[in-house]
Structures are given as C-alpha cells and as structure tokens.
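fyi for ur records
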Amino acid sequence: MLTRKNFIQHTAFATAGLSLFELTQPAKAAELKIHLERIAGLEANNAAKDEEFWGWVREQYTTSPTITNFNNGGVSPQPKQVQDAHIRNYQYCNEAPSYFMWRQLDLGREPLRAKLAELAGCSPEEVAINRNTTEGLNSIIFGLNLKAGDEVVISNFDYPNMVNAWHQREKREGIKLNIVKLDLPIENDEVFVEKFEKAITSKTKVVHITHVINWTGQILPVRKIADMAHKKGCEVIVDGAHSFAHLNFKISDLGCDYFATSLHKWLCAPFGTGMMFVKKEKIKNIWPLLSAPEPESDDIRKFEGLGTRSFPAEMAIANAIDFHLLIGSERKEARLRYLKNRWSEMAKTISKVQLFTSLKPEYSCAIANFAIEGWKPEDIDAKLFEKWKIHVTTINHENVHGVRVTPHVYTSLKDVDLLAKAIIEITGMEPPKK
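which gave:
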C-alpha cells in the first residue's frame, strides 16, 4: 500500500520499463524480466512476432472476452496499471478535493510535462497538457493571428472538428481555405508534396497536415510537406491524433510549428487526456482558446487554463508512458503493422474486396479500411458484429466507403485470424436486399 508521503512521488516519478512492475506488481516482475531479456536483442520486426511477449502484453488489459474490438482508432482501453493509477488518484482526491487535488496531486504536473516532452522529443516549455486533439488544434487554429484575405491550406481528408474550426474562421473573419483534393491511397511522397504546393499562393499563411488520416490509415510525408511549406513562408500545423505513440518518431522529426494529439488513443492513457506542442518562439503569437491572465506571454502554461479538470486522469498519463516505454516505440510500431498486414494481405487477394489503404510500410501501420463488392459498409459492420461479435467502424467519406479496422497491442493473432475468416465468409454471402 502506498502512503500519502510517497504517493505523489510514486505517481509523478515512476520510472519506465521493468521498474513499473517492481513497484506495483512485484510478483510479475520476474516473468516480465524474462520476456524483456529474450526480446532485447531482437530486431523490431522479429520482436513483433514473439507471441509470448505479446501474450503477456495482452494479459495487462481488461478487455471484454465477448467482443473482439477492432475500433481502437476511436479510443483505446488502458492497461490495468493505468486504470489502477487513475482510480487511486481519484480516491485520493476525494478525501479532501480542494486540498489533495490542487495542492498535492497537481504537484506532479511539471514532472509529467517533462516526461511527455522527453517522449515527444521537445522541450517541456513547448508542451501543454489538455484533453484531446480537438482542444489542442482548436487552440492553435483560433489562436493564430490571421486576417481577412489570409489563406490556409487544408485537405479533404482532414478531421471534421478541425475542418469545422477553419470554416468558422472563414465565415467570421474572411480567411480563405484552399482545399487539397486527395484520392487515397497514395504511394508517392512527391504526389503529396506537389498537391500541397499547388494549393499554396503568395497569401497562404498556414498549411494544415494530418499525419495519419483517420479514415484509412494513410501516412503522409509530413516532413517533406513541411519543408516545402516553410520555404514558401508558411507555418505548419500537424494533426497527430493517430500518429503519436503509434509510429516511432519525435515531433522534431516532422519539422512542424504546431502539433496536437489525443493520449487516450495509441498511448492508452485515461480517456480525455491530450497534449499540445507549440514551438517556443511561436507561443507568444498564439492567443489561448480560454482566457489567461497574460494571453500574449511565451509561457506554454497559458493554454492550460481549463478550470477544474480531471487531475486524477492527467497524472495517470505518466503510468501510460511507462507502459509504452516498456513495450518500446519501435517494437510497438512493428507489431501494429504486423497485425494489420496479417489480415489485409489476405483480404487483398479476394477479388470482391477493395482496400482503401496502402500496404507499403511507409504509408500505413495499424489502421486499414476495406470494402466488399455489393455490400454497404453499414451492412458489413452489422454482419461482423452479428455473427462474430467483431466491432469495427463504418466509414463514408469522399471516395472511401468501407469499414475501418484498428487493432492494438493487446490484439491477438487469433483475433486477426477471426476477422480474416469473417471477411472470406462474407464475400461468399448474398448482400442484404436494398
């Protein structure tokens, strides 16, 4: 049992890897040590196939045995140690909320900021802790100093909450949106760069890029687009909702000015936790979405004036980072791609199946989208759940009409093979009558 004296220290400073279990689950530490020693010398692609290790990872989750969940792209479950930390934080705060929440638990905010910054590859003075990608990107979109006539480049596959924010600025202030038309999948970096470059004019101030497109899992060559945009004098915003803790990268690798992500997706942090990055020299130019005492300061904390928030959830982010580091970013990306490839490579051999996702490693990882000839996406979704209790999500966006499949680190080969079997069976069935 943790005492109050060491509670904050444990929550805020828990170290990554094996020590996480030595502190919280000492009985399992020896078993974990064996797994880690075995895979330590393996290349990521080989470690991705080590079913003993990934079986252990699966055991750390409390997912339902009655549903096979392939919609982790919406929101992901948390491993038990993250759930436990969240609950422990919550119970602690309830002993005397205004004291333990604001005067004790919140002391972990700066260590957590440093921990997030280290994972993201940036300075702690460039990281704001918030609730999700929408909040982070809306803070940036509405905070930018733009005026009537200024132009912004977005794409037809950007996330609706961000597109709506840009349209609101367009309606209220008269900025102009230039929309890049993408026809996915695309397997050529230069095609992306050329399309974005053609949309830029002498009046363009901002280029908005989605790193991993939620509808299909398409990965964009962000750095190449960003470098081109910067040469033309534009600032670059990156929507990292589906890339952070999914792909193995640092924010500095992207060359962007602004970035935001939801930590309750691929990091498996508590629901309603997120992170925003703003280059230090850019902070003073962004107005906070919610009021701050010094809105034009260069302090990243001006974006955290949310009022009362879930301190217990935020502090458990540290435990999610520890679990992520225990798995390893490179191994995690390799495993997620391996799971996607296992079912999608089979599916592409079926004449009635259409994939909306590239299978080249540089253009996709965990997420893929497929359609079956003669079937509406909604009917595929319904049939998968009705007969096999497989949970996916329906996508109808632009030229993409299919179902999105999103495994996670707890997904087993048995789960993936069940999906493959289901797809084969559906292709032999008569589609529902219209």
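The radius of gyration is 22 Å. thats all i got for now
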